[in-house]
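Weekly sync notes, structure subgroup
Attendees: PM, AL, DS (notes)

Item 1: joint prediction request from the bench team. They want all five components modeled as one assembly rather than separately. Inputs as received:
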Amino acid sequence: MVRQIKGRSKKSGLPPGTPVHVGDRKTEIIKISLIDYDKESFEMRVTQTVEECFAYKGKPTVTWINVDGLHEVSSVEQLGNCFGLHPLTIEDILNTEQRPKLDVFDTYIFIVVKMHTWNEKTKEITGEQMSLILGDNFVITFQEKEGDIFDEVRNRIKNNKGRIRKSGADYLAYSLMDALVDNYFRVLESIGEDIEEMDEELIKNPTPRTLHKIHFLKREMIFLRKTVWPIREVISRLVREETGLIKDSTKIYLRDIYDHIIQIIDTVETYRDVISGMLDVYLSSISNRMNAVMKVLTIFAAIFIPLTFIVGLYGMNFNTEKSPYNMPELNWYYGYPVALGLMLFVSLIMLFLFKKKKWF
Amino acid sequence: MVRQIKGRSKKSGLPPGTPVHVGDRKTEIIKISLIDYDKESFEMRVTQTVEECFAYKGKPTVTWINVDGLHEVSSVEQLGNCFGLHPLTIEDILNTEQRPKLDVFDTYIFIVVKMHTWNEKTKEITGEQMSLILGDNFVITFQEKEGDIFDEVRNRIKNNKGRIRKSGADYLAYSLMDALVDNYFRVLESIGEDIEEMDEELIKNPTPRTLHKIHFLKREMIFLRKTVWPIREVISRLVREETGLIKDSTKIYLRDIYDHIIQIIDTVETYRDVISGMLDVYLSSISNRMNAVMKVLTIFAAIFIPLTFIVGLYGMNFNTEKSPYNMPELNWYYGYPVALGLMLFVSLIMLFLFKKKKWF
Amino acid sequence: MVRQIKGRSKKSGLPPGTPVHVGDRKTEIIKISLIDYDKESFEMRVTQTVEECFAYKGKPTVTWINVDGLHEVSSVEQLGNCFGLHPLTIEDILNTEQRPKLDVFDTYIFIVVKMHTWNEKTKEITGEQMSLILGDNFVITFQEKEGDIFDEVRNRIKNNKGRIRKSGADYLAYSLMDALVDNYFRVLESIGEDIEEMDEELIKNPTPRTLHKIHFLKREMIFLRKTVWPIREVISRLVREETGLIKDSTKIYLRDIYDHIIQIIDTVETYRDVISGMLDVYLSSISNRMNAVMKVLTIFAAIFIPLTFIVGLYGMNFNTEKSPYNMPELNWYYGYPVALGLMLFVSLIMLFLFKKKKWF
Amino acid sequence: MVRQIKGRSKKSGLPPGTPVHVGDRKTEIIKISLIDYDKESFEMRVTQTVEECFAYKGKPTVTWINVDGLHEVSSVEQLGNCFGLHPLTIEDILNTEQRPKLDVFDTYIFIVVKMHTWNEKTKEITGEQMSLILGDNFVITFQEKEGDIFDEVRNRIKNNKGRIRKSGADYLAYSLMDALVDNYFRVLESIGEDIEEMDEELIKNPTPRTLHKIHFLKREMIFLRKTVWPIREVISRLVREETGLIKDSTKIYLRDIYDHIIQIIDTVETYRDVISGMLDVYLSSISNRMNAVMKVLTIFAAIFIPLTFIVGLYGMNFNTEKSPYNMPELNWYYGYPVALGLMLFVSLIMLFLFKKKKWF
Amino acid sequence: MVRQIKGRSKKSGLPPGTPVHVGDRKTEIIKISLIDYDKESFEMRVTQTVEECFAYKGKPTVTWINVDGLHEVSSVEQLGNCFGLHPLTIEDILNTEQRPKLDVFDTYIFIVVKMHTWNEKTKEITGEQMSLILGDNFVITFQEKEGDIFDEVRNRIKNNKGRIRKSGADYLAYSLMDALVDNYFRVLESIGEDIEEMDEELIKNPTPRTLHKIHFLKREMIFLRKTVWPIREVISRLVREETGLIKDSTKIYLRDIYDHIIQIIDTVETYRDVISGMLDVYLSSISNRMNAVMKVLTIFAAIFIPLTFIVGLYGMNFNTEKSPYNMPELNWYYGYPVALGLMLFVSLIMLFLFKKKKWF
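Output from the run, pasted for the record:
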């Protein structure tokens, strides 16, 4: 995830507004799903050609066109031209390395955000880009690959649950953003569980692998944070928008999302703090352990070094026969027991001193 | 306390405004206490059904309905509908994973805050959510379980102490917020005592357990901070509120709470700084100790290693009879005393050198 | 100094505006000193009862009432009522755990600040709270115990030095604030001297005690900083005040205090940076020293361990008589000198290698 | 890259507005390339004298004069005078130690930015300064040496690709800025690859050289960050510019650059965080390794020190003939096997203890 | 440089506006140099009495009075009174412990800044205070001691170079500020060279002295930063000044200084970052080295400890004659060579293991 902006170089030198697909190709075929509804009617179809969508332009019913897969540049371009999108907007839709942002044009609002999912196995966050166009009676969404976070919204429209069928395109756009933001709660919940696990591991049995996992998670949070902060701005600007594309009654709901995104940011920041704290805990536990190892070594050395000296002393070969001054101890009657006693005494003194210093 | 937003996933996919209880069930039965008063009259009743409350709607007297326990979704919904609450408000009341916030609606102000208590035994902060609705002549509060921090307010109303009976619903809301903020002082006072204890422990006898406690407290402060900051914003917006629901005379009192919350934030930040400092103290005391252990080891090794070499030297078995060059010292008359003297001399030199380097 | 807000709990549950003394009782008896002056006249009296002050209310001359000692709640309350103070103001005066703040009421300005003194012996900052009421023609100050930082102002009034006798109550309030801020310069000067001392100690002979002193000072700075920042805000708001209680000519002087307080904050922040730097110096000097100890140990071990091995080798008891392969060196004519030479050679090689690695 | 502002001293003392070339001479000869175009016509010429440019002043077509090489002070001065530049502007063009900035004058906008390239071999960022003057119908650019990042723009004009030939000087200026900002994406992409490489190295085989490279890259990011932040400000002010020199249709495109520069800043900040994290990983891997080394040492010492003591013990020379108490073990029938067994037992005990402590 | 505000205490207790000289006396005699000029005329004189200056008050020509030395309080006071300075201004001129600031009075602008010079030998930054009064037709500057950074300005006036003789007092004030700011570039250039030197030292041969120098420089940067930031504010306010004392044509030049000061701040911040990075490099190089030392020790110990055990083993004195089980190896025909071979084998195994662990 480090190489943030790979693939950008493909574009350098081209005139601005040139549609080029930047990013990995995440799906094989492009899939277009079209939903058209109002209070009474409901229509849903899946297609692979954009031409079918053109008929829905200008209809008084609410139309939601969802495009999965961005590699067919010409399809996106045709759709964009039909619905009157600015060349820069089409360029931005195709470039999946965008930063979340909101652009207001005369006839539509253009939103780019990131959708993240948490891979339970690799413990990785993977993301894809979602672009949303909110026009007068239509919403167009572009995703890099098929996903399921909008399924609930689809069901609500189909089954006429909640306010959605009674409201306009702005409420649909709100519902999609709400599903997207809710999804972040799910991601954070999974990460929270992961942090708890690591926390336990940290206390019970910290290994260098634990450290590695903490560092990895820390980096994930850097990237998550980088994605979530600009979404806050996007929604804040949506709430304050005055183009007439968003009704006041919908803005109350947008304020609700705003509260959610603030809570998400809060949680991300808290997780960062908690993870930093875990790194500190790890490092000080290493320090503690090293200290313990050092003490064991020192106790061993300090007890046995004098003893080894004494036994070495009486292993010297001075000629006791040549002189009464040469190691007379060797010929004493109780020489050996006295030497053993001396060594025992030295050891006890040492142990006593270490005990006093609270080394064990 | 890490898994900040558990239970949220229960809600994802539902249309906004759907009332769902999110959070742990902290009490068995729902309890509704109802207080109705004005300058002269006072009435208080405890019930378990919401229907009794409906009669108090629109009465000119001040009505305070307090609901303990949120798991009976339908009761909350009925009460909300009766007093004209927006579906999003009802949803937020039931979701106990809210961030403290203030929402202003046409006919009422909706406040969500957290109430914290400090568990003396586990040294843990536990929190619950409190929602407060301030309407024209009524205040409705929702708590997750029965508590006692509002008892003093109840007594003041009952015994007609202070201004409370003479003032309107806004003053009642203020009094409840004041009790809640005062409670934070109590929590911080307990934590302060705990910090002092740890501080002493840190100087007298720091153990890895001390470190563990410091880290734990540090994390508690992260969470406390996260809760207290948004309360500042809530009260700041209350003071600047211009709906007419809050009288100017009450705003002077709200400014007073604002000062208190700033003081609480100040104290939380100071505690964080102090705790960080304690971690530094711990780590440098570990360093100091390790240094001391290293020195003892080095002094021992450096003194005895040369001595051990000397005794080993004279333990060699070169054949002194074959040649006058082979270890003639062994046959000297004063060989042994000279060797002992040499060793003493070497030790003293070493001790002198270490003394000079200020190693002990 | 950790338990910031002890004693607060005494108040919880009481209706707001209830006068309760919070804090330690720092003086035995309450002392009221009263100064009344204008261009020509001057009167000064010391009393212990508040009733004498009532007569001065509404006089056209400037009246300064200074109260030392806050434990007699009723006296403070009577004085407050006489001069028309709001119950919350009286409550705040009595609560010595306030954060510095400024409240503007219709007829007076209420200022709470902290006065700090530096105890040269314990190297501790001790503080007390000062409240100041600036009314139309009067200034009332409340201190926790008798102090002398206002003596100079008293003398200036008495001896008619400077502008003070020719100016109104606002200039008197300014003069008192100025004396208070000047006092912070004195405190910082003492701390600066202390830092210099520690700095020298750090370079010449750093001990764990030095570290302890640095940590202590660091914490003192946390608290000083916490007190000084809000004073900046108090004075900034005084300068921008538009109640008419403060004349424009006095505001030039207040701007001067503002510059001073900015300088004090600057100095506190710089001290914090310097103290942090000192901690870094200490820790890296510990590291350096440990490294040096390690090297001595390693050099000793690395030189003597091979030598000890050699002497051990020739201390083995293989039977040289049974076989010509068993330690023939022991029977060589120059066996011993050769062995000594070998050991000398090994030592020199080692020393040469360490020299090359720049270990000493 | 540390000596940020070398060469500045050349200028001190001179009156402001004196044209002096500050910086290294990066090219031998000055090269002036001149492009003049409108919807239909296109002219391009390369020259070394400025006089040829004078004729293009005031022409209704768009004129782009690009100067490579700044050491011929008089040429720059003549050009500046011809197009009515302020003396301070000319001074700033010649001083290559500028901070990126935007100055608005009555008849032109003056922009200074930095162009960076990443040297794949030395892993260094090298930069040069680019000045851009946007006048009514002309754009003048100054570079320190010939480069190729504007080649694509030249080609687009030549081949009449995109909107450029149909638009005015402001769109040309935008295109140049766009090329410059795009170039930063290329630089960041290269750095991203480098970080990934180092990341792998860090996990597989961290050496002090890795650390050195991380520190080097960290410093590169400090400088990159310092350059990129002010560019954001430059473009932000361009978007809000109201001189009429920039048309509204061009501002949409400038907002697009603004998004890009925000993304670049975001990436730079993320890289900084990632690099900091890598330093932490390195340091804790050093700690882990040291800990492992310590353990090996301690295990060895702790196992063999007691054994060595035992063998030393039975190497003592107490006279077994003089007394039955002197080392009777030496004369036991199974003395040696028992001693060996004892040593084996001690070793096993030790190993068992270390195993239990999870030391290996 | 720690004791920031020494000497302040001299002032406490005095009425505000009392002129007292605070700071060290840096010159023996006070020196007043007076320059008076307009487009045609030029006059310059050096004097030691202020009375000569009075005649120049109110002249239509531009008068620049420069005072070196502040200890003669009365001279400064007389000069101030003559030119109508507020008592607080005179007090501030004499107090050399000021923070850089700008005060606007009705008839003049008062600026206090710091002039710094870098002492090449002691590697210390020394500073002095400069006060500047800009009036209608006059500029008065006060310095603590004679300096030469204004010499160039003097020469320009004398030799009628640049715009200075044609412009008013505001342009003179600008020129002086410009000279002062330019001087900071010189200081930073010197520090930059110093950092480069240290950087090289750090890579080639880091010693504790290097560390000491880095810490020293770090502290110097703390103080430089503290001085430079408020100058930014001073100049920013000068640019926005609307008293009419500064002409719009001069403001273009002031904006230029503003850019310079921003660049200086940028450089100071970058240097701080670089120096912090150097500290990290130093500490990790210490860690690396310690690790290397540890490894050498461990390798030595781990190889020789088993060998020493073996030679000790065969140095035991078990009686081989009493039992065939007692050390039969000693009597083997190839006992000694086998023992030597065993030791060689053990060493090789050890070396192989360490090689595998990449310890050397």
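Discussion: Chain E touches chain C through 67 residues (CB under 8 Å).
Action: AL to compare against the crosslinking data before next sync.
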